[in-house]
Design brief:
41% of the residues lie in helices and 9% in strands. By secondary structure, it is mainly alpha-helical. The chain has one domain. It has a two-stranded parallel sheet with strand order 1-2. α1 crosses α2. It is elongated, with a radius of gyration of 18 Å.
Length: 90
């Protein structure tokens, strides 16, 4: 098949790990209501599982996205990029 001149669209996906956002706060609160544990204990448990020892912040994930949007990163396509301090390697 001749593919010269064809444009192929492949998407790059940024896969964030635990991120300190309202949905995660809501999840911690819901677990606390169900179990009676303090929401802070839920975060502490999650943080023990993350090699960096903390949850990420939205700005950290946005920084990865901004790099991918630059023209110099145009060859990085059709892949998934885990941004989870490397929880996915465990």
């Amino acid at each position: 098949m001749n593919t010269r001149g064809r444009r192929h669209h492949l998407e790059t996906i940024v896969c964030p790990g635990f991120t300190r956002t309202a949905p995660l706060d809501n999840l911690a609160s819901a677990i606390s209501k169900r179990t009676g544990a303090n929401a802070g204990k839920n975060f502490a448990g999650w943080e023990r599982e993350i090699p960096a020892g903390r949850v990420g912040h939205a700005e950290e994930f946005a920084a990865v996205g901004s790099v991918l949007l630059r023209c110099g990163a145009s060859y990085a396509n059709g892949t998934s990029i885990a941004v989870d301090r490397p929880l996915s390697l465990l």
